[in-house]
Amino acid sequence: MALETTEIQEKLIETFGSKVLAFNQDRDIFSLEADSDIITAVVLFLKNDPALRFHFLTDLCGVHYPDNEENKQFAVVYHLHNWYENKRIRIKSFINGSKPEIKTISNIFLCANWMERETYDFFGINFIGHPQLKRILNMDEMISFPMRKEFPMEDSGRTDKDDRYFGRTTINQ
What we know:
alpha/beta
């Protein structure tokens, strides 16, 4: 019998109650939101439940929403896949903007180690319990997080970025 999204939703609500919400089917991905304090329990439940079997973490990333209220300025998004039924699920967990932190899932999915380090590197989200949370792509000396919306897109002081050399002039010459 095929795994239905209603079955996933019912099992999650039965287990976690109102801490899981905003269920939505968008094309082939079933989406939901989970409170950040239960995210490891939700991911572990989806992985270990014998009917659900979401055994593969496809992706983990961060999103910055600077215009949201303080406790929803960042989100960590998890994409899981059930290969047996070819079902995908997206879980979004919002976290505080002044102190963005959430528990690690690198002890549940080993591949989350690199993904969490990348998310920390670009968004500054602290993954509590991560075995080696440090920058992975940017320099260790860097004090900012380049994927945050307040990070400038280009250094205005660079002289090698003269618009004339890239065909971006307003006057035809």
